[in-house]
Amino acid sequence: MPTELSLRQPDDWHVHLRDGAMLEAVLPATARQFARAIVMPNLTPPVTSVAAARAYAGRIREALPPGSRFEPLLTAYLTDHTDPAELERGFRAGVWVACKLYPARATTNADAGVSDIEALTPVLDTLERIGMPLLLHGEVTDPSIDIFDREAVFIERHLAPMLQRHPGLKAVLEHITTSDAVAFVRAGSGELAATITPHHLHINRNAMFQGGLRPDFYCLPVAKRELHRLALRAAATSGDPRFFLGTDSAPHSRGAKESACGCAGIFNAPFAIESYAAVFEQEQALDRLEAFASEFGPSFYGLPLNSGRITLVREPRQVPRRLELHDSAGQPVELVPFHSGETLPWQLS
Ligand code: NCD
Ligand code: ZN
Question: Is 265 in the pocket of ligand 1 (CB under 6 A)?
């Protein structure tokens, strides 16, 4: 059994870095391990203009630990009123690298999202023409659809017809949670890819109810049955370049999680690469971790591979139950990390 693992430095192809004090508190966890990250635009207000994206990138750079070379890759938040010309302008200027489609009200800060996906045709025509990727929160919001079926129904109702109308569209089905999504991506062209989070590889829906109601395991899309988790593990470790790393680390304060109406989101950034390494080891696929974490994402986005390397050492360590992080003014921000209280076998050295 290897005791050390050297990997090309990975990137996170889906993360929520937030803003203000939360940004300052959580950014070091991501910058410690990843060279770049696709940063979600669901702030309040959302990042809908080139000017807002430039300003947000500036705030992220300001909040970086001294000497960090972490590079945020910004995204545009699509609404019913998105101007395709604005998307193109920001893409050509290198301000944002992709855009994000949240069906209206599907998740945290998605109120301003898209209420009529079929009306997006002019936007999608532009994306297809300029080669700008569309990142999808793939869940229907129809309240008559069971929450555990919302991803599968989104694929059938919206994604399949969309890709038929726009065969050249580069799209990423984000944070997939079902065997339906795995099968759909496998059957698609190389223009469709998917990100997979560490939590959906580790937990199934039982985790939310283990011994009581466990808000720290609640996220969207919600974890599904065990058969889906197994399909995700098979996809992530298969060596298929259409499945790559995206943590969907989504911090909410302890108070916002432990509430009568707790927020969706799992804060997995602190031990993300360690979490993926545990899965790949359990699946006897450690030799495929590097491609999943560090190669397939850049190839999809047409970006260079990182030249730096990281080292993981086989040194089991317990994840703290809570993390007291701090903003730049030294104010504490208390968060519960994913794997709270558990022992992970690999550590980033
Ligand atoms: C995300 C958040 O909190 O911003 N929450 C989550 O459960 N993943 C939004 C999202 O990606 O759905
Ligand atoms: Zn997300």
Answer: yes
